[in-house]
Amino acid sequence: MQASRRFALRRPVRSGFTLIEVLLVLAILGVIAAMVVPNLLGRQDEANRRASRISIAGFENAVKQYAAEHDGQFPEGNGDSVIQMLMTPEQTDDSAKPRSPYLEKIPMDAWKNPLRYEYPASGNHQSTTGKPAIWSAGADRQDDTADDINNWSQN
């Protein structure tokens, strides 16, 4: 009988966390998130800008290749018509096999918008080199704003 009495006096073992412990952990996680998230967002924006610059350089190389094979003449026009022309294989005179297209797919920026092209360049899109203007409207998707990325200035 004494053994059963000893077991009866024991308190039940509690498992789990108290409300104060849970709130303390949440507060610590909130402070960490407040310090880390802004750094990650800034890096994502810079990564998107770099990816867009790389896409612009690839598009510019395709246009330069076209010009090299067409007596130094860049494709004239703007937008979709030039892009479609660069994506269409050309028939050559000296071979039955058409040339490979200069572009495999529509060049896009990091925000999944098509890059813009203009030649001869005009307005805000002019460069001093006389090359075609190629640009991304940036994250805001609006032309001629501060976040635009282009091939004629360092931005």
**Strand adjacency order, main sheet:** 1-2-3-4
CATH topology label? Glycoprotein, Type 4 Pilin
In the CATH hierarchy, the architecture is 2-Layer Sandwich
Mean pLDDT: 84
Order of helices and strands: HHEHEEE
Total domain modules: 1
Strand content: 5-15%
CATH class: Alpha Beta
Low-confidence stretches: none
> Structural class of the helices, strands and pairings?
alpha+beta
H/I helix tally: 3
Range of helix content: 40-55%
Total beta strand runs: 4
Give the CA-based shape: elongated
Distance between the termini: 87 Å
CATH superfamily: Glycoprotein, Type 4 Pilin
Reported for the largest beta sheet, the result is:
4 strands, antiparallel
Could you walk me through the main structural features you see in this protein, from its secondary elements to its overall organization?
A 4-stranded antiparallel beta sheet has the order 1-2-3-4, with helices on one face. The protein contains 3 helices and 4 strands, in the order ααβαβββ. It has one domain (42-150): 2-Layer Sandwich (Glycoprotein, Type 4 Pilin), CATH 3.30.700. The longest helix is centred in the first third of the chain and has 50 residues, at 19-68. With 155 residues, the chain is α+β, with helices and mostly antiparallel strands.
